[in-house]
């Protein structure tokens, strides 16, 4: 009759240790995939938000800006950095229908206020876009699309209130190709939101894409490559 040999304590401990290492690697890989997915989602949603903001600015003749806010309370009790578009009211009296003039669009009472702090300043707002902890989207803060034209103005929380009739000022406020970059603390390369200064149309592209890195001049996007080379 054959003797059945079981595992020794040393063999069992070794097997458990190997399984522990494999489980740790699997969890780390899953967390990395989840983090990358969140970064991708936030990047595409910010681009979509910029397109929507431009469309609304043209169709409603109201300025629409994108605001990034830190430490916003979430339904689960946590806090997060979020971004959303805000369609600003025009006129001197926020309780009445819009009174559109160059000097009161947006309303002077709202040029230094976000609509989260002062809800009466907005006709409506977009859904919050959660910015992952591994992502910095501060560059898009206060990107404003001007009423009627949809032209972009960057770093202008006032959306050029009182200056909408000044072509040189509007042109000077437009973002450069490299102005709006999304940066990551993960291994992901930067993304660039390139906004056309005359139309407000935008596109988001990655700095590790073939268009930015290829040495083939026929396939290289010079504007993107130059934007990605900026610090």
Give a concise summary.
This protein is of the alpha+beta class and about 230 residues long. Helix content is about 30%, strand content about 20%.
Radius of gyration: 24 Å
| Beta-strand residue percentage | 15-25%
The biggest beta sheet, please? Answer: 6 strands, antiparallel
Amino-to-carboxy terminus distance = 76 Å
Catalogue the unreliable spans: none
Q: Report mean pLDDT, rounded to a whole number.
A: 89
Question: Helix count, per DSSP?
Answer: 4
Protein name: Prepilin-type N-terminal cleavage/methylation domain-containing protein
InterPro entries: N_methyl_site (IPR012902), Pilin-like (IPR045584)
Pfam families: N_methyl (PF07963)
Organism: Corallococcus exiguus
What does this structure look like?
With 231 residues, this protein is of the alpha+beta class. It has a domain at 36-176. 30% of the residues lie in helices and 21% in strands. It contains 4 helices and 10 strands, in the order αβββββββαβββαα. The chain has helices at residues 9-60, 167-173, 210-213, 222-228, and strands at residues 64-73, 79-88, 122-125, 129-131, 135-136, 143-145, 152-153, 181-184, 191-195, 202-206. Strands 1, 2, 3, 4, 6 and 7 form a 6-stranded antiparallel beta sheet that branches. It has a 4-stranded antiparallel beta sheet with strand order 5-8-9-10, with helices on both faces. Strand 8 (181-184) and strand 9 form a beta hairpin. It is flat and about 85 Å long. The termini are far apart. The mean pLDDT is 89. InterPro entries: N_methyl_site, Pilin-like. It comes from Corallococcus exiguus. This is Prepilin-type N-terminal cleavage/methylation domain-containing protein. It holds the Pfam family N_methyl.
